[in-house]
């Protein structure tokens, strides 16, 4: 079992926890175990061991001008401020405070609350007995080297206001690195929403199972880097609440590689490895067609055909000698006016369309939507779809459609939904999949993919559940023109291959997203976040594959 694939809401976490407690695990014992693990990790991070959180330790070092943490002897151990809230998040924090105190750190506890949950109060009483100083003002924290945030965890449901909000704001303004326990206080565990005020953490220890907020774009600036503190939740308890096949999963290396078309059959030939038709580009945006085609090339698809306006055909042929380039009739400005009369869409296992088409290619896109071919639709393909009427058109399609909008395109495609779900990207993607029956791949820092699980309708209701995959790792280096075009081609290639191999088709969306992100991460590592232009990205797809496949 890979614990990394699970992702839960606060309510699901509570239900799992309830089962563990009902089975006999004492609450206090679990708190002790979890907080002990956190205290150990904090010490490792302070020594510079592992994780990107070590960057912030360098900040600490700079602040105190004491040289490197690794060289610090006991007398120079950092001063750690522990922020304690009224619930069990505060209880965890108090156990961390106590453990760090016993390890020789100078600890100061900030607890502005008078009413604490019983277990939290017990730990507070004991910490007082140990003469760990308690403060209820921010001022005494200003000389700390590190703050540990245990104000609120998944129990926070309402807006933070008044004195607590002011205090959190002041704490953020101290500019001291903060490690949050479970979730930065003030961030909603499920939606990632900012509840009035929130701790801006450098690093967050997510406890037990990943929470939804870690996969919501809007929470990422508050979460900082993150890691899972695995406290051995029994698999049976997870399965009892999430089901044997959880409806929402983080994409992992294992799940992504499972749907790669590898190994190839020794007797495969070009047609059994899929035939993809890309329809992209215009005289104005010829590069978009090239980038999509280079993405498709990396997928290893058996046959690649590319339909472009007649006038840019030579450019495509010179860049992609292996591809079959089809010239299409074009408008005055050089967009595809319609598909060639002689084209037989039935020849292709899948079609990927959209990048660089311009809105003038509406007739061509309409004929693709009317076809019975599996389709990946992106960019202008989506803008045209929005004009034609997203939901009725997609609901009518008999074949699989994967649409890959960024948030702006999503709003154009599903204006009402976007208003309802706001910035909750996971809810928005799931609702869109329910509404139109297509596979929705919502781009962003944490790509969210949802589709309807037709095989699993919910009892009497005709609504089926959705399957959702969330990509946990990416890089802002990919936030750049053209990187989406590469994804469209890569995904199209994987889809054509999956259809030809008769393997599950929707799942390749998660594989393509993971692969694309890993290539970006690898390129950014070697060339910095500024060095990952879309063409360069295409050149990292195969090296990245060699690392993770
Ligand atoms: N299963 C696990 O993962 C474990 C979780 N642990 C820790 O417990 C917290 C959850 O604890 P809980 O007591 O349920 O809630 P919180 O500590 O998050 O805080 C709730 C507390 O705060 C009050 N409150 C809520 N909203 C506000 C507000 N806006 N302003 C002021 N006060 C508010 C509320 O009334 C409660 O009293 C989890 O995150 C983990 O850190 C276990 O220790 C280990 C296992
Ligand atoms: K917290």
Automatic annotation (TrEMBL):
Swiss-Prot/TrEMBL keywords: ATP-binding, Isomerase, Lyase, Metal-binding, Multifunctional enzyme, NAD, NADP, Nucleotide-binding, Potassium
Q: Which gene is the coding source of this polypeptide chain?
A: nnr
Name the cofactor(s) required for activity, per the record: Mg(2+); K(+)
Reaction it catalyzes: (6S)-NADPHX + ADP = AMP + phosphate + NADPH + H(+); (6R)-NADHX = (6S)-NADHX; (6R)-NADPHX = (6S)-NADPHX; (6S)-NADHX + ADP = AMP + phosphate + NADH + H(+)
Q: Where are the transmembrane segments?
A: none
Query: For this protein, what does the record note about how its cofactor is bound?
Result: Binds 1 potassium ion per subunit.
Subunit architecture: Homotetramer.
Chain residues that bind K(+) = 89, 149, 185
Domain YjeF N-terminal positions: 13-239
Q: Please state the Enzyme Commission number of this protein.
A: 4.2.1.136, 5.1.99.6
What Pfam families does its record include?
Carb_kinase, YjeF_N
According to its UniProt record, which protein family does this protein belong to?
Belongs to the NnrD/CARKD family.
**Where do the annotations place AMP binding?**
484
Superkingdom in the source lineage: Bacteria
The scientific name of the source species is Microcoleus asticus IPMA8
Q: What is this protein called?
A: Bifunctional NAD(P)H-hydrate repair enzyme
Q: Which InterPro entries match?
A: Carbohydrate_kinase_pred_CS (IPR017953), CARKD (IPR000631), Nnr (IPR030677), Ribokinase-like (IPR029056), YjeF_N_dom (IPR004443), YjeF_N_dom_sf (IPR036652)
Q: Which residues participate in (6S)-NADPHX binding?
A: 88-92, 153-159, 182, 288, 356, 406, 485
- Function per UniProt: Catalyzes the dehydration of the S-form of NAD(P)HX at the expense of ADP, which is converted to AMP. Together with NAD(P)HX epimerase, which catalyzes the epimerization of the S- and R-forms, the enzyme allows the repair of both epimers of NAD(P)HX, a damaged form of NAD(P)H that is a result of enzymatic or heat-dependent hydration. Catalyzes the epimerization of the S- and R-forms of NAD(P)HX, a damaged form of NAD(P)H that is a result of enzymatic or heat-dependent hydration. This is a prerequisite for the S-specific NAD(P)H-hydrate dehydratase to allow the repair of both epimers of NAD(P)HX.
Instruction: Using the record's annotation, list all stretches that form the YjeF C-terminal domain.
Output: 253-548
List the top taxonomic levels of the source.
Bacteria, Bacillati, Cyanobacteriota, Cyanophyceae, Oscillatoriophycideae
């Amino acid at each position: 079992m890979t614990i990394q694939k699970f992702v839960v809401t606060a309510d699901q976490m509570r239900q799992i926890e309830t089962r563990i407690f009902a089975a006999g695990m004492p609450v206090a014992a679990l708190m002790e175990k979890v907080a002990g693990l956190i205290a150990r990790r904090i010490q490792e991070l302070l020594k510079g061991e592992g994780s990107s959180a070590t960057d912030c330790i360098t900040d600490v070092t700079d602040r105190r001008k004491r040289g490197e943490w690794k060289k610090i002897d006991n007398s120079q151990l950092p001063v750690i401020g522990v922020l304690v809230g009224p619930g069990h998040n505060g209880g965890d924090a108090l156990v961390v405070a106590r453990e760090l105190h016993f390890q020789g750190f100078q600890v100061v506890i900030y607890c502005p609350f008078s009413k604490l949950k019983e277990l939290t109060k017990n730990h507070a009483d004991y910490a007082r007995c140990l003469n760990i100083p308690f403060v209820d003002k921010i001022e005494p924290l200003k000389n700390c080297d590190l703050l540990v945030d245990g104000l609120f965890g998944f129990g926070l449901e309402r807006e933070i206001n008044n004195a607590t909000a002011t205090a959190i704001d002041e704490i953020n303004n101290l500019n001291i690195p903060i490690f949050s326990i479970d979730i930065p206080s003030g961030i909603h565990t499920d939606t990632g929403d900012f509840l009035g005020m929130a701790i801006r953490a450098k690093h967050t220890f997510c406890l037990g199972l990943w929470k939804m907020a870690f996969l919501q774009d809007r929470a990422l600036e508050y979460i900082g880097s993150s890691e899972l503190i695995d406290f051995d939740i029994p698999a049976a308890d997870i399965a009892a609440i999430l089901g044997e096949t959880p409806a929402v999963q983080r994409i992992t290396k294992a799940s992504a590689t499972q749907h790669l078309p590898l190994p190839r059959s020794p007797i495969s030939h070009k047609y059994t490895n899929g035939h993809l038709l890309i329809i992209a580009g215009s005289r104005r945006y010829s590069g978009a067609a090239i980038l999509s085609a280079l993405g498709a090339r990396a997928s290893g698809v058996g046959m690649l055909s590319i339909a472009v306006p007649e006038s840019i055909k030579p450019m495509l042929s010179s860049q992609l000698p292996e591809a079959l380039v089809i010239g299409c009739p074009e408008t005055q400005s050089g967009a595809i006016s319609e598909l060639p009369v002689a084209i037989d869409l039935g020849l292709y296992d899948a079609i990927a369309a959209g990048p660089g088409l311009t809105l003038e290619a509406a007739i061509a896109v309409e004929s693709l939507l009317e076809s019975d071919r599996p389709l990946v639709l992106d960019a202008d393909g989506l803008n045209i779809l929005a004009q034609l009427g997203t939901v009725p058109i997609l609901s009518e399609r008999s074949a699989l459609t994967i649409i890959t909008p960024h948030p702006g395109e999503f709003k154009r495609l599903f204006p009402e939904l976007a208003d309802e779900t706001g910035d909750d990207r996971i809810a928005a993607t799931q609702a869109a999949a329910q509404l139109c029956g297509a596979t929705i791949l919502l781009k962003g820092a944490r790509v969210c993919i949802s589709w309807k699980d037709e095989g699993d309708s919910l009892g009497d209701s005709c609504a089926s559940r959705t399957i959702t995959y969330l990509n946990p790792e990416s890089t802002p280096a990919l936030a750049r023109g053209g990187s989406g075009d590469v994804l469209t081609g890569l995904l199209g290639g994987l889809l054509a291959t999956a259809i030809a191999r008769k393997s599950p088709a929707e799942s390749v969306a998660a594989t393509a997203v993971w692969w694309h992100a890993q290539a970006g991460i690898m390129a950014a590592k070697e060339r910095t976040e500024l060095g990952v232009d879309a063409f360069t990205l295409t050149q990292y797809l195969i090296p990245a594959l060699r690392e993770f496949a």
